[in-house]
Amino acid sequence: MRDPAPPYRGEGEHALWHVSEDPGIAVFRPHLAATAAEDEPLVRAIDTRHLPLYWFPRDCPRGTFWAGPTTSDADVERFLGHRLARVHAIEPPWDERMRTTPLYAYRLPVDAFEPYEPAGGYWIIPIALIAGLAILLLVHRAARRWISSVLERLVLARTRR
Q1: Does the pLDDT of residue 18 top 80, yes or no?
Q2: Confidence band for 138, pLDDT divided at 50, 70 and 90
Q3: Model confidence at 77: pLDDT above 50
Q4: pLDDT at 34
């Protein structure tokens, strides 16, 4: 199993989530994901620590990284600035969709799920369930502002080469 992500500022308590552009999901039904390694239909969830990996519109190509236990101090300084920083990057053509797509975070019951061992931060259950809705829109807006500022810095750094 890979190491979990480091904590992030404002992370909040441990919870399980499903992020979607659909504001009206009432029942989560098991399905076989296109990228699934197993043949069993499942409902999948992500924990709070890994939630920022899903602050993006569906199908948005992205790169995400953070320091792991074997990351050198020199690489932390060069690529991140400090050990708890994370980088979430998208391709420039997705910038507008990132700014305008509302995302919804559904909080799922922790006790119903079991950890998905091959990937830290992911949780599974083989049965359908009903969940309450927590709107991620405000967090998404803050993330969009942050990503926009990162993109601007990357463009500036690239043009200075």
Answers
A1: yes
A2: very low
A3: yes
A4: 83
Identify the pLDDT of residue 134.
Answer: 43
Strand 114-115 to 122-125 pairing: antiparallel
Our CA angle for 143, 118, 44, nearest 5°, is 55
Q: Alpha carbon 120 to chain centroid distance?
A: 13
| CA dihedral sign of residues 54, 105, 116, 129 | negative
Could you tell me if 40 and 126 are in contact, meaning their C-beta atoms sit under 8 angstroms apart?
Answer: yes
User: What's the pLDDT score for residue 129?
Assistant: 79
| Strand stretches in 2-160, DSSP E | 16-20, 27-28, 43-47, 62-66, 86-90, 104-108, 114-115, 122-125, 129-130, 132-135
What the block records as the tokens of 64 is: 């995400």
Q: Hey, what's the torsion of the CAs at 113, 119, 122, 128, to 10 degrees? A: -50
Asked if 38 and 78 touch (Cβ cutoff 8 Å), the reply is no
Give CA–CA dist 131/26, Å, rounded: 7
**Is residue 86 within a helix (H) or strand (E), and if so which, with residue range?**
strand 86-90
